[in-house]
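Section: protein folds

Sequence with per-residue C-alpha coordinates
===
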Amino acid sequence: MIRCFNLPIQSAQKVILNNRTNRMKKIINDGLHHITIVIMVLTTCLFSISSCVEDEPEDTRIPLIELSGIDDNALMSLEWKEANTFIEMIISDNRGMSDYLINIDSLGQEVYTYEVNQLDYKLMHEVIAVDHLTTNFTYDISISLNDINGNTNQMDFQLLLTAFKKFNYLGLVGNGSPAGWNPQASSTMTQSPSDEAIFTYQGPLFAGEIKIAGFIGDWCDGEWLFASQAAKSISEPDQFVVGVCSSPDNKWMISPENAGNYLVTVNLQGGTISFDKQ
Protein backbone atom coordinates (compact mmCIF):
# COMPACT_ATOMS: atom_id res chain seq x y z
CA MET A 1 0.00 0.00 0.00
CA ILE A 2 1.28 3.34 -0.99
CA ARG A 3 1.01 6.11 1.48
CA CYS A 4 1.18 9.68 0.39
CA PHE A 5 2.08 12.52 2.69
CA ASN A 6 1.14 15.99 1.77
CA LEU A 7 3.48 18.56 3.37
CA PRO A 8 2.26 22.00 4.01
CA ILE A 9 3.67 24.67 1.66
CA GLN A 10 5.63 26.35 4.44
CA SER A 11 7.25 23.06 5.41
CA ALA A 12 8.19 22.38 1.80
CA GLN A 13 9.84 25.81 1.54
CA LYS A 14 11.86 25.11 4.68
CA VAL A 15 13.10 21.80 3.26
CA ILE A 16 14.18 23.51 0.04
CA LEU A 17 15.98 26.32 1.96
CA ASN A 18 17.68 23.83 4.24
CA ASN A 19 18.93 21.85 1.27
CA ARG A 20 20.27 25.02 -0.40
CA THR A 21 21.95 26.12 2.81
CA ASN A 22 23.60 22.76 3.23
CA ARG A 23 24.87 22.84 -0.36
CA MET A 24 26.28 26.38 0.12
CA LYS A 25 27.97 25.33 3.35
CA LYS A 26 29.51 22.38 1.54
CA ILE A 27 30.71 24.61 -1.33
CA ILE A 28 32.21 27.13 1.12
CA ASN A 29 33.83 24.38 3.18
CA ASP A 30 35.24 22.74 0.06
CA GLY A 31 36.54 26.13 -1.15
CA LEU A 32 38.18 26.90 2.18
CA HIS A 33 39.77 23.45 2.11
CA HIS A 34 41.22 24.09 -1.35
CA ILE A 35 42.46 27.55 -0.33
CA THR A 36 44.12 26.03 2.72
CA ILE A 37 45.85 23.46 0.54
CA VAL A 38 47.05 26.18 -1.90
CA ILE A 39 48.40 28.29 0.99
CA MET A 40 50.21 25.25 2.39
CA VAL A 41 51.72 24.49 -1.03
CA LEU A 42 52.85 28.10 -1.50
CA THR A 43 54.29 28.20 1.99
CA THR A 44 56.20 24.98 1.30
CA CYS A 45 57.57 26.39 -1.99
CA LEU A 46 58.61 29.65 -0.41
CA PHE A 47 60.28 27.79 2.43
CA SER A 48 62.09 25.60 -0.10
CA ILE A 49 63.31 28.63 -2.05
CA SER A 50 64.43 30.32 1.15
CA SER A 51 66.22 27.16 2.20
CA CYS A 52 67.99 26.98 -1.19
CA VAL A 53 69.25 30.56 -0.86
CA GLU A 54 70.45 30.02 2.67
CA ASP A 55 72.16 26.76 1.77
CA GLU A 56 74.04 28.18 -1.27
CA PRO A 57 77.74 27.27 -1.05
CA GLU A 58 80.00 30.07 0.19
CA ASP A 59 82.14 31.76 -2.46
CA THR A 60 85.75 30.89 -1.63
CA ARG A 61 87.37 32.06 -4.88
CA ILE A 62 90.24 34.44 -4.17
CA PRO A 63 90.43 37.87 -5.82
CA LEU A 64 92.95 38.31 -8.63
CA ILE A 65 96.06 40.54 -8.71
CA GLU A 66 97.85 41.19 -12.00
CA LEU A 67 100.93 43.39 -12.40
CA SER A 68 102.22 44.55 -15.75
CA GLY A 69 105.31 42.54 -16.70
CA ILE A 70 105.86 40.68 -13.41
CA ASP A 71 104.99 37.35 -11.79
CA ASP A 72 104.73 36.44 -8.12
CA ASN A 73 108.08 36.16 -6.29
CA ALA A 74 109.97 37.74 -9.19
CA LEU A 75 112.08 40.86 -9.69
CA MET A 76 110.58 43.90 -11.40
CA SER A 77 113.07 46.35 -12.84
CA LEU A 78 111.83 49.86 -13.67
CA GLU A 79 113.77 52.73 -15.10
CA TRP A 80 113.39 55.67 -12.75
CA LYS A 81 112.05 58.89 -14.23
CA GLU A 82 111.86 62.26 -12.58
CA ALA A 83 108.08 61.97 -12.70
CA ASN A 84 105.54 59.28 -13.52
CA THR A 85 107.49 56.25 -12.35
CA PHE A 86 104.77 53.81 -11.36
CA ILE A 87 103.57 50.23 -11.11
CA GLU A 88 100.42 49.29 -13.02
CA MET A 89 98.08 46.87 -11.24
CA ILE A 90 94.77 45.25 -12.26
CA ILE A 91 92.68 43.77 -9.45
CA SER A 92 89.38 41.91 -9.81
CA ASP A 93 86.84 39.70 -8.06
CA ASN A 94 83.62 38.08 -9.30
CA ARG A 95 81.56 39.31 -6.32
CA GLY A 96 83.32 42.58 -5.47
CA MET A 97 86.46 43.78 -3.72
CA SER A 98 86.71 45.27 -0.27
CA ASP A 99 90.20 46.74 0.22
CA TYR A 100 93.88 46.36 -0.59
CA LEU A 101 97.14 47.12 1.21
CA ILE A 102 100.61 47.67 -0.28
CA ASN A 103 103.70 47.36 1.92
CA ILE A 104 107.12 48.41 0.63
CA ASP A 105 110.09 47.64 2.83
CA SER A 106 113.83 47.21 2.65
CA LEU A 107 115.87 44.90 4.88
CA GLY A 108 112.86 44.46 7.14
CA GLN A 109 112.36 48.19 7.65
CA GLU A 110 109.01 49.54 6.47
CA VAL A 111 109.51 52.30 3.93
CA TYR A 112 106.04 52.96 2.58
CA THR A 113 102.46 51.77 3.17
CA TYR A 114 99.49 52.47 0.90
CA GLU A 115 95.95 51.34 1.80
CA VAL A 116 92.61 51.74 -0.01
CA ASN A 117 89.31 50.80 1.66
CA GLN A 118 85.65 50.51 0.62
CA LEU A 119 86.33 49.58 -2.99
CA ASP A 120 82.92 48.04 -3.86
CA TYR A 121 84.11 47.27 -7.38
CA LYS A 122 84.63 44.06 -9.35
CA LEU A 123 87.45 45.34 -11.58
CA MET A 124 89.97 48.15 -11.08
CA HIS A 125 93.07 49.47 -12.85
CA GLU A 126 95.37 51.06 -10.28
CA VAL A 127 98.56 53.09 -10.75
CA ILE A 128 100.99 53.13 -7.81
CA ALA A 129 103.59 55.90 -7.89
CA VAL A 130 107.10 54.83 -6.79
CA ASP A 131 109.17 57.76 -8.04
CA HIS A 132 109.81 58.80 -4.42
CA LEU A 133 111.88 55.65 -3.75
CA THR A 134 115.68 55.57 -3.86
CA THR A 135 117.15 54.37 -7.14
CA ASN A 136 119.54 51.46 -7.70
CA PHE A 137 118.14 49.74 -4.63
CA THR A 138 116.02 46.59 -4.27
CA TYR A 139 112.75 46.76 -2.32
CA ASP A 140 110.47 44.00 -1.07
CA ILE A 141 106.84 44.67 -1.99
CA SER A 142 103.74 42.86 -0.74
CA ILE A 143 100.21 43.47 -2.05
CA SER A 144 97.22 42.08 -0.11
CA LEU A 145 93.73 42.17 -1.66
CA ASN A 146 90.47 41.29 0.16
CA ASP A 147 87.04 40.73 -1.37
CA ILE A 148 83.61 41.31 0.18
CA ASN A 149 83.36 37.63 1.19
CA GLY A 150 86.54 37.74 3.27
CA ASN A 151 88.75 35.94 0.73
CA THR A 152 92.34 37.20 0.52
CA ASN A 153 95.08 37.08 -2.11
CA GLN A 154 98.67 38.21 -1.58
CA MET A 155 101.38 38.88 -4.13
CA ASP A 156 105.04 39.34 -3.18
CA PHE A 157 107.82 40.55 -5.45
CA GLN A 158 110.94 42.71 -5.52
CA LEU A 159 111.34 46.09 -7.17
CA LEU A 160 114.55 47.62 -8.48
CA LEU A 161 114.41 51.24 -9.66
CA THR A 162 117.28 51.75 -12.05
CA ALA A 163 118.68 55.14 -12.85
CA PHE A 164 122.00 56.03 -14.36
CA LYS A 165 124.06 59.05 -15.13
CA LYS A 166 124.08 59.36 -18.91
CA PHE A 167 127.30 60.13 -20.75
CA ASN A 168 127.83 60.88 -24.40
CA TYR A 169 131.54 60.12 -24.10
CA LEU A 170 133.80 57.91 -21.98
CA GLY A 171 137.55 57.47 -22.32
CA LEU A 172 140.37 55.75 -20.40
CA VAL A 173 143.02 57.96 -18.77
CA GLY A 174 146.16 56.86 -16.91
CA ASN A 175 149.55 55.26 -17.41
CA GLY A 176 147.78 51.90 -17.74
CA SER A 177 146.10 53.08 -20.97
CA PRO A 178 147.51 54.13 -24.38
CA ALA A 179 146.42 57.74 -23.68
CA GLY A 180 148.56 58.16 -20.55
CA TRP A 181 147.65 60.98 -18.15
CA ASN A 182 146.00 63.14 -20.76
CA PRO A 183 142.22 63.75 -20.43
CA GLN A 184 142.29 65.76 -23.65
CA ALA A 185 143.24 62.66 -25.66
CA SER A 186 141.82 59.74 -23.63
CA SER A 187 141.44 56.25 -25.08
CA THR A 188 137.91 56.40 -26.46
CA MET A 189 135.28 53.87 -25.45
CA THR A 190 132.57 52.94 -27.97
CA GLN A 191 128.92 53.47 -27.05
CA SER A 192 126.59 50.61 -28.05
CA PRO A 193 124.19 51.64 -30.84
CA SER A 194 121.41 49.53 -29.27
CA ASP A 195 121.95 50.41 -25.59
CA GLU A 196 123.09 53.88 -24.56
CA ALA A 197 124.15 52.56 -21.14
CA ILE A 198 126.89 50.28 -22.53
CA PHE A 199 130.39 51.51 -23.43
CA THR A 200 133.28 49.25 -24.44
CA TYR A 201 137.01 49.55 -25.00
CA GLN A 202 139.00 46.83 -26.75
CA GLY A 203 142.77 47.17 -26.73
CA PRO A 204 145.91 47.03 -24.61
CA LEU A 205 146.17 47.79 -20.90
CA PHE A 206 149.62 48.27 -19.40
CA ALA A 207 150.93 47.83 -15.90
CA GLY A 208 149.80 50.96 -14.07
CA GLU A 209 146.56 52.76 -13.16
CA ILE A 210 143.48 53.99 -15.01
CA LYS A 211 140.31 55.94 -14.42
CA ILE A 212 137.63 56.97 -16.91
CA ALA A 213 136.80 60.49 -18.06
CA GLY A 214 133.26 61.44 -19.11
CA PHE A 215 134.52 64.33 -21.21
CA ILE A 216 137.39 65.57 -23.35
CA GLY A 217 139.18 68.53 -21.80
CA ASP A 218 141.02 69.62 -18.69
CA TRP A 219 140.98 67.68 -15.41
CA CYS A 220 138.01 69.49 -13.89
CA ASP A 221 135.95 70.02 -17.03
CA GLY A 222 133.53 67.19 -16.31
CA GLU A 223 132.73 64.06 -14.36
CA TRP A 224 134.79 60.91 -13.84
CA LEU A 225 134.20 57.25 -13.20
CA PHE A 226 136.30 56.14 -10.24
CA ALA A 227 137.01 52.72 -8.76
CA SER A 228 135.14 51.67 -5.62
CA GLN A 229 138.39 51.81 -3.66
CA ALA A 230 141.99 52.87 -4.14
CA ALA A 231 144.19 50.56 -6.24
CA LYS A 232 141.27 48.28 -7.11
CA SER A 233 142.44 45.25 -9.09
CA ILE A 234 140.99 44.63 -12.54
CA SER A 235 140.96 40.88 -11.88
CA GLU A 236 137.25 41.05 -10.98
CA PRO A 237 134.27 43.29 -11.88
CA ASP A 238 133.71 46.44 -9.83
CA GLN A 239 131.05 49.02 -9.01
CA PHE A 240 132.25 52.39 -10.25
CA VAL A 241 131.61 55.73 -8.52
CA VAL A 242 130.68 58.89 -10.42
CA GLY A 243 132.57 61.95 -9.15
CA VAL A 244 134.43 65.13 -10.04
CA CYS A 245 138.06 66.18 -9.87
CA SER A 246 137.76 66.89 -6.14
CA SER A 247 136.29 63.43 -5.37
CA PRO A 248 138.45 60.61 -3.89
CA ASP A 249 140.83 59.72 -6.72
CA ASN A 250 140.37 55.95 -6.63
CA LYS A 251 141.79 54.20 -9.68
CA TRP A 252 141.89 50.68 -11.11
CA MET A 253 145.24 48.95 -10.83
CA ILE A 254 146.78 46.76 -13.56
CA SER A 255 149.55 44.59 -12.16
CA PRO A 256 152.40 43.49 -14.47
CA GLU A 257 151.05 39.93 -14.62
CA ASN A 258 147.59 41.24 -15.57
CA ALA A 259 148.79 43.49 -18.41
CA GLY A 260 147.56 42.55 -21.90
CA ASN A 261 144.73 43.04 -24.35
CA TYR A 262 141.30 43.53 -22.77
CA LEU A 263 137.65 44.06 -23.47
CA VAL A 264 136.60 46.70 -20.93
CA THR A 265 132.82 47.07 -20.52
CA VAL A 266 131.07 49.84 -18.62
CA ASN A 267 127.37 49.41 -17.83
CA LEU A 268 126.05 52.78 -16.73
CA GLN A 269 122.65 51.41 -15.80
CA GLY A 270 124.05 48.66 -13.60
CA GLY A 271 126.90 50.85 -12.32
CA THR A 272 129.47 48.16 -13.18
CA ILE A 273 132.77 47.84 -15.01
CA SER A 274 134.36 44.55 -16.10
CA PHE A 275 137.77 43.67 -17.54
CA ASP A 276 137.89 40.57 -19.77
CA LYS A 277 141.35 39.55 -20.91
CA GLN A 278 141.46 38.53 -24.56
